[in-house]
Amino acid sequence: MYQTQLQIRAVIVVVAVLAVVAGVVIVLVTSPKSLELSDLQPARSQTATAQSGTPAPAAGLTVAATDTPAAPPTIKPLATPNVTVTPFATLPADVRALAIINLTDGASARLRAVPGGDIIEAIPGGATVQLLKQPSRVLDGLTWVQIRDENGVAGWVATHLLVILPSP
Fold it and tell me: pTM of the entire structure?
């Protein structure tokens, strides 16, 4: 019976210690101010103040409670495509915008005489072209626009092959 009472008292002591530790943790987490080591050990600070009349120096340890989240991880941007844009000196009156042929790996866009018609020439991927002010046309589910290449040759190309450049 005596051993059972000792075990019960030991459990009560452990529970009491855990309650004190939990209380300190809650105070540290919810406190809006910075806590110094002297705040956690008031007996030492009060004794030093009573003996010398001046507060005891801080031990150099500061515990700060904050609600500020950590900075998000840095996201590296994707590699920028290496495309050289050689804009025309000034845009002629019949030009709506500049565009780039959006093809890579040596692929070329087929410039056609009419939408879906005969091929006039092949324009390499990455080439800058002028998007003319002619209305677009839809044929077989593709939208076609009239363009002019850097050599002045005009024709039609499907819009999914172009990236329109922002106006200067």
Answer: 0.47
